[in-house]
Design a protein that fits this description.
Number of helices of chain C: 7
Strand content of chain C: 5-15%
Helix content of chain C: 25-40%
Structural class of chain A: alpha/beta
CATH architecture of chain A: Beta Barrel
Strand order of the largest sheet of chain A: 1-5-2-4-3-6
Strand content of chain A: 25-35%
CATH class of the largest domain in chain C: Alpha Beta
Distance between the termini of chain C: 7 Å
Shape of chain C: elongated
Number of helices of chain A: 5
Strand order of the largest sheet of chain C: 1-4
Number of domains of chain C: 2
Chains: A alpha/beta (120), B alpha/beta (347), C alpha+beta (150)
Number of strands of chain C: 4
Oligomer: heterotrimer
Chain lengths: 120, 347, 150
């Protein structure tokens, strides 16, 4: 039997911002591994503590029918009770101001995987 | 050279033996990685030559029932002017993807504005209103707030007051230390400011900022939204980081709505980052971009162009509307202006 | 101190120091090597040892002023270059006025998008042993840090 590390599913407000590092990576190569590595969801230390999220873990973010897997980063630049994300393809794909977040396993979603959704 | 990484349009950037001097991470990445992930001329996913791609694009546009021209934030004023002619010829809609009312007001002159040099030389209160300068326009603060100026010789700690208003403790907010205040944005903050300015009550931090504003004749707010209550107390500089978005507002004024369109002509931006996927599905797409973008992956035609300012010249408008003549380090034949002109001539 | 926390903290004195605390200080000043601590190389301390090796890599690149730059945190904003009192004094029309520094050998300069230490000999921390923290104070990501705070 396999248990997910944390069985909590949390609903947070999804907030976007322009991350300078992601903008710089987008000027290089939007399809690079670096770009995916930098595509994180940022959560406030208090929020992380409350819900048991750890810096660096992979989470699933769900908005209605749409979901993505991203790595979580803990940082004070994110307000409490929010999931902060760079305003790019991931945020636009989720296109919601609320998101359900839960622990997950596997590799973070890539832009190519999101682009497949555009074609279907 | 002039860095076209953002609307700071820094003029002190140099390329010295392959090393980029003074440009921030965004500009340096653009310059150092110019040969990475370049767009290639393609028609229906198959690589071809640029002339074929331009011809096919022209055919598609002739054939369409409604065109939306999208982007134009990262290209020159000259290319924007040709795009305007194109839009008129095709009765096309035009959308740069941004939804701010401030830039148009500044361009029209209904909002008091100033230059970055004057901010540096004279500004006492410098306010960042819901704008994370550190991430969006990294060198803006070092060029204005941190720099010494004619009437601000003693630097930011003694001769300036920094006010950062935001919904979160952004990197910019973290810099509000000495002679500074971070005000967490809340519902009713605008009313509080109006009240405080009229001598009435407000939250402590708002009263503090207004008290400082009243001390000086020269205050500046960097913002993306029009703040009428600040117009009396200072100058407003649009904080729109997209390199030549201000050029777009000067040439087009703003968006041109269109009821229906079956074709999108994308110039330099990536609508996949902004437009709802539902809007994009089923539309034919022509992408003009120097690099591989998300949009280019599902485009019917991709036309590779030069990186404006680095590989082609022209004019751009800085965030404060200063006209800057670009000084490209390299020269590529097909820039946005040439491509758009060819399309226009072919219609 | 982060370095001390990762040591065995037994004060066994095998390294030649009286306490692990003083060994930690000597490590940072590069007067002692990690290999001097035999217990650290036991299997139970493997994770600690690895983390210490990472931390000390950064220290190796540090300068005599104790200035350490973590390029992974630096966005190249240039605040540190512009705010440096030495730069302001020596280059008033350049860095002093918010532009890229025009000195041939400045203390700091933004190159390839991140700040690099060029010549510390002009820095007040080195020359005059002054406690000047201007560069670090105005870096919102702590990309610039001073050794003794690690």
């Amino acid at each position: 039997m396999r248990f997910a590390k944390f069985l909590k599913r949390v609903e947070l407000r999804l907030l976007t911002y322009r991350d300078g590092f992601q903008v710089a990576l987008a000027r290089k190569d939007k399809f690079s591994k670096e770009f995916v590595d930098g595509s994180v969801v940022v959560v406030n230390p208090n929020t992380a503590k409350t819900f048991g999220f750890k810096d660096g873990q992979v989470v699933r973010l769900r908005a209605g029918e749409r979901w993505v897997r991203m790595r979580l980063k803990v940082d004070e630049i994110s307000p409490e009770g929010c999931a902060l994300m760079h305003s790019g393809i991931y945020a636009n794909y989720l296109s919601s101001d609320r998101v359900v977040i839960e622990a997950d396993e596997g590799e973070p979603t890539t832009p190519d995987e999101i682009l497949k959704e555009l074609v279907t | 050279m002039i860095c076209t990484g953002c609307s700071c349009l820094c003029e002190d950037v140099e390329l010295r033996d392959g090393k980029v001097m003074h440009a921030c991470r965004i500009g340096a990445s653009m310059i150092l990685n110019r040969n990475v992930a370049r767009a290639r001329a393609t028609v229906e996913g198959k690589e071809t030559d640029i002339d074929t791609a331009i011809d096919r694009a022209t055919e598609i546009l002739k054939d369409s029932e409604g065109v939306l021209i999208y982007g134009l934030n990262y290209t020159t004023v000259e290319a924007q002017r040709i795009a305007l002619k194109l839009a008129e010829k095709l009765s096309a809609g035009v959308d740069n993807g941004l939804r701010y009312d401030l830039p148009k007001k500044v361009v029209e002159g209904s909002v008091r504005t100033t230059t970055l040099e004057d901010v540096r030389d004279y500004a006492y209160v410098i306010m960042f209103w819901r704008f994370d300068a550190h991430n969006e326009m990294p060198r803006l603060m070092s060029r204005t707030y941190y720099a010494r100026g004619k009437k601000r010789q003693r630097g930011h700690e003694e001769d300036r007051f920094l006010a950062v208003v935001d919904v979160r403790k952004s990197h910019t907010a973290i810099l509000a230390k000495k002679n500074a205040v971070f005000v967490e944005y809340y519902d009713g903050i605008v009313e509080d400011f109006v009240s405080a300015m009229g001598g009435g009550l407000a939250r402590r931090e708002v009263l503090k900022v207004v008290g400082e504003l009243k001390k000086s004749e020269f205050n500046v707010v960097f913002t993306k939204e029009f703040l009428p209550f600040l117009n009396d107390f200072g100058y407003t500089v649009p904080a729109i980081p997209q390199t030549n978005a201000m050029g777009f507002y000067e040439v087009f004024g703003g968006r041109r709505e269109i009821d229906r369109f079956d074709t999108i002509l994308v110039v330099g931006d990536d609508p996949i980052n902004d437009l709802p996927f539902d809007t994009l599905r089923g539309k034919r797409m022509i992408v003009i971009d120097p690099k591989l973008s998300f949009a280019s992956k599902s485009a019917d035609v991709v036309i590779p162009s030069a990186i404006s300012g680095l590989e082609s010249g022209g004019t751009m408008l800085r965030c404060d509307l200063k006209e800057v003549e670009l000084k490209p380090e390299f020269k590529l034949e097909f820039d946005d202006a040439k491509i758009l002109r060819r399309i226009l001539e072919g219609l | 101190m982060d370095v001390y926390r990762l040591l065995p903290k037994t004060n066994c004195r095998m390294c030649g120091e009286q306490t692990c605390m003083s060994f930690a200080f000597k490590l940072i000043k590069r007067e002692k090597k990690l290999e001097d601590c035999k217990p650290l190389f036991e299997p139970e301390f493997e994770e600690n040892r690895k983390r210490l090796e990472e931390m000390l890599k950064v220290v190796e690149k540090a300068t005599e002023t104790g200035l350490v730059v973590n390029e992974d945190l630096c966005i190249g904003c240039g605040n540190c270059v512009v705010v440096c009192p030495v730069h302001v004094y020596e280059d008033p029309e350049g860095a002093g006025s918010g532009y890229g520094i025009r000195l041939e050998r400045p203390i700091l300069r933004v190159e390839d998008g991140v700040v690099r230490v060029v010549d510390v000999s002009l820095c007040r921390r080195y020359k005059e042993k002054t406690i000047c923290v201007a560069c670090r104070e105005n870096c919102p990501t702590s990309a610039i840090a001073f050794l003794e705070e690690l």
